[in-house]
Protein backbone atom coordinates (compact mmCIF):
# COMPACT_ATOMS: atom_id res chain seq x y z
CA UNK A 1 0.00 0.00 0.00
CA UNK A 2 2.01 2.98 1.10
CA UNK A 3 3.99 5.19 3.36
CA UNK A 4 1.37 7.56 4.78
CA UNK A 5 1.18 10.51 7.13
CA UNK A 6 0.30 9.94 10.75
CA UNK A 7 -2.45 12.57 10.51
CA UNK A 8 -4.36 10.53 7.90
CA UNK A 9 -4.14 7.30 9.88
CA UNK A 10 -5.37 8.96 13.04
CA UNK A 11 -8.27 10.78 11.41
CA UNK A 12 -9.46 7.50 9.94
CA UNK A 13 -9.05 5.87 13.36
CA UNK A 14 -11.23 8.59 14.84
CA UNK A 15 -13.99 7.94 12.31
CA UNK A 16 -13.77 4.19 12.88
CA UNK A 17 -13.34 4.50 16.68
CA UNK A 18 -10.24 2.35 16.97
CA UNK A 19 -6.57 3.05 17.75
CA UNK A 20 -3.50 2.46 15.60
CA UNK A 21 -0.55 0.70 17.24
CA UNK A 22 2.78 2.54 17.12
CA UNK A 23 5.33 -0.22 17.37
CA UNK A 24 8.89 0.57 18.39
CA UNK A 25 11.48 -1.40 16.48
CA UNK A 26 15.26 -1.73 16.79
CA UNK A 27 16.33 -3.77 13.77
CA UNK A 28 15.26 -5.14 10.42
CA UNK A 29 13.87 -8.35 11.89
CA UNK A 30 11.48 -6.40 14.13
CA UNK A 31 10.39 -4.26 11.18
CA UNK A 32 9.67 -7.39 9.11
CA UNK A 33 7.72 -8.98 11.99
CA UNK A 34 5.61 -5.87 12.64
CA UNK A 35 4.73 -5.38 8.96
CA UNK A 36 3.92 -9.07 8.57
CA UNK A 37 1.40 -8.87 11.45
CA UNK A 38 -0.19 -5.67 10.08
CA UNK A 39 -0.50 -7.14 6.59
CA UNK A 40 -1.98 -10.38 7.84
CA UNK A 41 -4.59 -8.52 9.88
CA UNK A 42 -5.19 -5.90 7.15
CA UNK A 43 -4.39 -3.19 9.65
CA UNK A 44 -2.78 0.24 9.38
CA UNK A 45 0.34 0.52 11.53
CA UNK A 46 2.98 2.95 12.74
CA UNK A 47 6.66 2.02 12.87
CA UNK A 48 8.62 4.15 15.30
CA UNK A 49 11.98 4.62 16.95
CA UNK A 50 12.84 6.95 19.84
CA UNK A 51 15.82 9.29 19.85
CA UNK A 52 17.32 7.61 22.94
CA UNK A 53 17.48 4.30 21.03
CA UNK A 54 19.65 5.65 18.23
CA UNK A 55 22.84 4.63 20.01
CA UNK A 56 21.78 1.04 19.24
CA UNK A 57 20.14 1.67 15.85
CA UNK A 58 21.71 4.65 14.04
CA UNK A 59 19.13 6.83 12.33
CA UNK A 60 20.88 6.91 8.96
CA UNK A 61 20.63 3.10 8.79
CA UNK A 62 17.37 2.24 10.55
CA UNK A 63 15.47 5.23 9.10
CA UNK A 64 15.72 4.20 5.42
CA UNK A 65 14.86 0.60 6.36
CA UNK A 66 11.67 1.78 8.07
CA UNK A 67 10.72 3.99 5.13
CA UNK A 68 11.32 1.26 2.54
CA UNK A 69 9.37 -1.27 4.60
CA UNK A 70 6.43 1.16 4.76
CA UNK A 71 6.57 1.94 1.05
CA UNK A 72 6.46 -1.75 0.20
CA UNK A 73 3.82 -2.76 2.75
CA UNK A 74 0.40 -3.96 1.60
CA UNK A 75 -1.19 -1.79 4.31
CA UNK A 76 -0.85 1.93 5.14
CA UNK A 77 2.14 2.56 7.41
CA UNK A 78 3.33 5.83 8.99
CA UNK A 79 6.97 6.15 10.03
CA UNK A 80 7.33 8.11 13.24
CA UNK A 81 10.27 9.59 15.18
CA UNK A 82 9.35 8.95 18.81
CA UNK A 83 10.34 11.23 21.73
CA UNK A 84 12.40 13.64 19.69
CA UNK A 85 14.65 15.61 22.03
CA UNK A 86 16.94 17.60 19.75
CA UNK A 87 15.97 19.70 16.75
CA UNK A 88 18.98 18.28 14.87
CA UNK A 89 17.77 14.67 15.07
CA UNK A 90 14.17 15.65 14.31
CA UNK A 91 15.38 17.46 11.21
CA UNK A 92 17.48 14.44 10.20
CA UNK A 93 14.41 12.18 10.52
CA UNK A 94 12.35 14.57 8.39
CA UNK A 95 15.05 14.63 5.72
CA UNK A 96 15.14 10.82 5.63
CA UNK A 97 11.38 10.86 4.98
CA UNK A 98 9.72 10.13 8.34
CA UNK A 99 6.07 11.12 7.93
CA UNK A 100 5.73 12.09 11.56
CA UNK A 101 7.87 13.37 14.42
CA UNK A 102 7.31 13.78 18.12
CA UNK A 103 8.83 16.63 20.04
CA UNK A 104 8.88 15.79 23.72
CA UNK A 105 8.98 19.17 25.42
CA UNK A 106 7.18 17.85 28.49
CA UNK A 107 10.12 18.52 30.83
CA UNK A 108 9.73 22.27 30.15
CA UNK A 109 7.08 24.52 31.58
CA UNK A 110 4.03 25.06 29.37
CA UNK A 111 5.46 28.14 27.66
CA UNK A 112 8.74 26.36 26.90
CA UNK A 113 6.86 23.30 25.64
CA UNK A 114 4.68 25.48 23.36
CA UNK A 115 7.67 27.36 22.01
CA UNK A 116 9.76 24.29 21.08
CA UNK A 117 6.70 22.53 19.65
CA UNK A 118 5.91 25.55 17.45
CA UNK A 119 9.45 25.38 16.06
CA UNK A 120 9.03 21.70 15.21
CA UNK A 121 5.58 22.23 13.64
CA UNK A 122 7.07 24.92 11.41
CA UNK A 123 9.89 22.62 10.33
CA UNK A 124 7.67 19.55 9.84
CA UNK A 125 5.26 21.59 7.70
CA UNK A 126 8.04 22.06 5.14
CA UNK A 127 8.08 18.29 4.68
CA UNK A 128 4.32 17.78 4.98
CA UNK A 129 4.98 15.67 8.07
CA UNK A 130 2.76 15.35 11.14
CA UNK A 131 3.75 16.35 14.69
CA UNK A 132 3.00 14.76 18.05
CA UNK A 133 3.71 16.51 21.35
CA UNK A 134 3.23 15.64 25.02
CA UNK A 135 1.43 17.58 27.67
CA UNK A 136 1.65 16.56 31.31
CA UNK A 137 4.37 13.99 31.93
CA UNK A 138 4.28 10.25 31.22
CA UNK A 139 6.03 8.24 33.95
CA UNK A 140 9.26 6.19 33.72
CA UNK A 141 11.53 6.86 30.78
CA UNK A 142 11.83 5.62 27.24
CA UNK A 143 15.06 3.66 27.87
CA UNK A 144 14.49 2.89 31.58
CA UNK A 145 17.36 5.15 32.66
CA UNK A 146 15.13 7.52 34.67
CA UNK A 147 12.10 7.07 36.87
CA UNK A 148 10.14 10.18 35.98
CA UNK A 149 7.08 10.77 38.16
CA UNK A 150 3.72 11.06 36.41
CA UNK A 151 2.26 14.57 36.12
CA UNK A 152 -1.38 14.26 35.00
CA UNK A 153 -2.42 16.23 31.94
CA UNK A 154 -4.53 19.24 32.85
CA UNK A 155 -7.30 19.80 30.29
CA UNK A 156 -7.08 23.61 30.40
CA UNK A 157 -3.35 23.50 29.81
CA UNK A 158 -3.86 20.92 27.04
CA UNK A 159 -6.43 23.18 25.34
CA UNK A 160 -4.14 26.20 25.46
CA UNK A 161 -1.25 24.07 24.21
CA UNK A 162 -3.29 22.71 21.31
CA UNK A 163 -4.65 26.09 20.27
CA UNK A 164 -1.15 27.55 20.13
CA UNK A 165 0.57 24.64 18.39
CA UNK A 166 -2.13 22.84 16.34
CA UNK A 167 -0.25 19.56 16.60
CA UNK A 168 -1.68 16.49 14.85
CA UNK A 169 -1.58 14.24 17.91
CA UNK A 170 -1.26 14.88 21.61
CA UNK A 171 0.23 12.45 24.14
CA UNK A 172 -1.47 12.52 27.52
CA UNK A 173 -0.33 11.53 30.99
CA UNK A 174 -3.08 9.63 32.80
CA UNK A 175 -0.98 7.40 35.08
CA UNK A 176 0.66 5.56 32.17
CA UNK A 177 4.41 4.94 32.27
CA UNK A 178 7.17 3.70 29.99
CA UNK A 179 8.82 0.35 30.66
CA UNK A 180 7.62 -2.35 33.04
CA UNK A 181 4.92 -1.21 35.48
CA UNK A 182 5.58 -1.76 39.16
CA UNK A 183 2.31 -3.47 40.12
CA UNK A 184 -0.90 -3.01 38.14
CA UNK A 185 -1.06 0.17 36.03
CA UNK A 186 -3.76 2.50 37.40
CA UNK A 187 -5.05 4.73 34.64
CA UNK A 188 -7.07 7.79 35.54
CA UNK A 189 -9.91 7.69 33.00
CA UNK A 190 -11.43 10.89 34.35
CA UNK A 191 -8.30 12.84 33.35
CA UNK A 192 -8.53 11.34 29.86
CA UNK A 193 -12.24 12.09 29.58
CA UNK A 194 -11.63 15.72 30.59
CA UNK A 195 -8.92 16.20 27.94
CA UNK A 196 -11.01 14.44 25.29
CA UNK A 197 -13.98 16.72 25.96
CA UNK A 198 -11.81 19.85 25.99
CA UNK A 199 -10.05 19.37 22.63
CA UNK A 200 -10.72 17.74 19.30
CA UNK A 201 -7.34 16.16 18.53
CA UNK A 202 -6.30 12.49 18.30
CA UNK A 203 -4.85 11.51 21.68
CA UNK A 204 -1.85 9.25 22.20
CA UNK A 205 -1.26 6.70 24.95
CA UNK A 206 2.41 6.05 25.72
CA UNK A 207 3.64 3.20 27.92
CA UNK A 208 1.45 0.56 26.29
CA UNK A 209 3.38 -2.45 27.65
CA UNK A 210 1.59 -3.99 30.62
CA UNK A 211 -1.79 -2.27 30.17
CA UNK A 212 -4.72 -4.73 30.13
CA UNK A 213 -6.89 -5.28 27.06
CA UNK A 214 -9.86 -3.96 29.00
CA UNK A 215 -8.08 -0.71 29.89
CA UNK A 216 -6.81 -0.25 26.32
CA UNK A 217 -10.38 -0.58 25.04
CA UNK A 218 -11.66 1.92 27.57
CA UNK A 219 -9.02 4.50 26.59
CA UNK A 220 -10.06 4.03 22.94
CA UNK A 221 -13.66 4.94 23.82
CA UNK A 222 -12.22 8.12 25.38
CA UNK A 223 -10.32 9.41 22.35
CA UNK A 224 -7.03 7.49 22.30
CA UNK A 225 -6.12 6.96 18.62
CA UNK A 226 -2.42 6.02 18.78
CA UNK A 227 -0.97 3.57 21.28
CA UNK A 228 2.78 3.20 21.74
CA UNK A 229 4.16 -0.25 22.47
CA UNK A 230 7.88 -0.82 22.92
CA UNK A 231 9.00 -2.95 25.90
CA UNK A 232 6.45 -5.72 25.25
CA UNK A 233 7.81 -6.24 21.74
CA UNK A 234 11.45 -6.19 22.85
CA UNK A 235 10.55 -8.73 25.57
CA UNK A 236 8.61 -10.90 23.15
CA UNK A 237 11.63 -11.07 20.83
CA UNK A 238 14.01 -11.83 23.69
CA UNK A 239 11.75 -14.52 25.16
CA UNK A 240 11.22 -16.16 21.78
CA UNK A 241 14.99 -16.31 21.22
CA UNK A 242 15.58 -17.66 24.74
CA UNK A 243 13.02 -20.44 24.16
CA UNK A 244 14.79 -21.34 20.93
CA UNK A 245 18.12 -21.79 22.75
CA UNK A 246 16.47 -23.72 25.58
CA UNK A 247 15.06 -26.18 23.06
CA UNK A 248 18.20 -26.45 21.01
CA UNK A 249 21.62 -25.32 22.18
CA UNK A 250 23.06 -25.32 18.68
CA UNK A 251 21.19 -22.73 16.67
CA UNK A 252 21.77 -21.84 13.06
CA UNK A 253 21.97 -18.05 12.54
CA UNK A 254 18.97 -17.98 10.20
CA UNK A 255 16.81 -19.78 12.76
CA UNK A 256 17.75 -17.00 15.15
CA UNK A 257 16.79 -14.41 12.52
CA UNK A 258 13.38 -16.03 11.91
CA UNK A 259 12.77 -16.40 15.62
CA UNK A 260 13.31 -12.65 16.16
CA UNK A 261 10.85 -11.87 13.39
CA UNK A 262 8.32 -14.21 14.97
CA UNK A 263 8.78 -12.63 18.42
CA UNK A 264 7.95 -9.16 17.06
CA UNK A 265 5.13 -10.52 14.91
CA UNK A 266 3.42 -12.25 17.86
CA UNK A 267 3.32 -9.16 20.03
CA UNK A 268 2.28 -6.75 17.27
CA UNK A 269 -0.50 -9.10 16.17
CA UNK A 270 -1.82 -9.42 19.69
CA UNK A 271 -1.96 -5.63 20.14
CA UNK A 272 -3.55 -4.92 16.74
CA UNK A 273 -6.40 -7.26 17.69
CA UNK A 274 -6.92 -5.46 20.99
CA UNK A 275 -6.77 -1.99 19.39
CA UNK A 276 -9.43 -2.97 16.83
CA UNK A 277 -7.48 -1.72 13.80
CA UNK A 278 -7.70 -5.05 11.96
CA UNK A 279 -9.64 -5.00 8.67
CA UNK A 280 -9.44 -1.18 8.64
CA UNK A 281 -7.15 -0.47 5.70
P1 LIG B 1 6.45 0.89 26.63
O1 LIG B 1 7.89 0.56 26.52
O2 LIG B 1 5.98 0.91 28.04
O3 LIG B 1 5.59 0.03 25.77
O4 LIG B 1 6.27 2.40 26.12
C1 LIG B 1 6.41 2.66 24.79
C2 LIG B 1 6.31 4.10 24.50
O5 LIG B 1 5.50 4.81 25.05
C3 LIG B 1 7.21 4.65 23.49
O6 LIG B 1 7.11 6.02 23.40
TrEMBL record:
Hydrolase is among the record's keywords: no
Source taxon at top rank: Bacteria
Gene name of the record: iolJ
Binding note for cofactor: Binds 2 Zn(2+) ions per subunit. One is catalytic and the other provides a structural contribution.
Protein name: 6-phospho-5-dehydro-2-deoxy-D-gluconate aldolase
CDD domains hit by this protein: TBP_aldolase_IIB
Positions contributing to dihydroxyacetone phosphate binding: 179, 207-209, 228-231
Keyword Cytoplasm tagged: no
Species this chain originates from: Clostridium pasteurianum DSM 525 = ATCC 6013
Gene Ontology molecular functions: 5-dehydro-2-deoxyphosphogluconate aldolase activity; zinc ion binding
NCBIfam families tied to this protein: cbbA (TIGR00167), PRK06806.1 (NF005288)
Binding-site residues, Zn(2+) 2: 104, 134
EC number: 4.1.2.29
Positions of Zn(2+) 1 binding: 83, 178, 206
Active site: 82
PANTHER family found in the cross-reference section: D-TAGATOSE-1,6-BISPHOSPHATE ALDOLASE, D-TAGATOSE-1,6-BISPHOSPHATE ALDOLASE SUBUNIT GATY-RELATED
Cofactor (UniProt): Zn(2+)
GO BP annotation list: carbohydrate metabolic process
Keyword annotations from UniProtKB, A to Z: Lyase, Metal-binding, Zinc
Amino acid sequence: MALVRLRELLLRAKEGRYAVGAFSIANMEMIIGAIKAAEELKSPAILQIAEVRLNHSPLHLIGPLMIEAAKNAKVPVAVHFDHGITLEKIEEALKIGFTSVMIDGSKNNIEGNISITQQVVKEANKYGASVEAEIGRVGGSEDNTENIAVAYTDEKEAKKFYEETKVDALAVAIGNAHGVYVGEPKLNFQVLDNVNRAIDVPLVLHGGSGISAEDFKKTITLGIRKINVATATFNSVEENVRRLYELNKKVNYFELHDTEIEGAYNNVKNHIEIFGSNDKM
